[in-house]
Amino acid sequence: MGKITEILNAAQQRGKDLNLPYAGALTPEEAYELMRSAPGAKLVDVRSRAEIDWVGRVPGAVEIEWATYPGMKQNPNFLAALEQQVSKEALVMFICRSGHRSQGAAMIATQAGYGDCYNVLEGFEGDKSPSNQRNVLNGWRVSGLPWEQS
Fold it and tell me: With the C-alpha atoms ordered 70, 74, 78, 80, is the resulting torsion angle positive or negative?
């Protein structure tokens, strides 16, 4: 069994364990490996433009806001933008700050006919620490995966 299959099987099992309404859940490291090696795989960053500009971006990710800043109102054009930029046949991985908005994006995309949607657990900045800080416990950045600041 290849590395891609192993990762997808683990993510799908997490999805079943968590009773998720989409294909599964990935760790940041798994998402990066799929982004690099799975043909046609897309990482969709659903954070607001402000978050991406101020906190950092994942090189090669498709950037479509789930909610807009300020006010964090849901982007009414999210699905239309996704359909313009990502094929429904693609393996699609959604990431946000902590894994919550991306979960909503994975659900909506699945309902819209995307058959292979995954949420990236921990997100870009990770879970909050006991002192209420991000970027210290886990997440894309803490894992040492590629990111850049504009």
Answer: negative
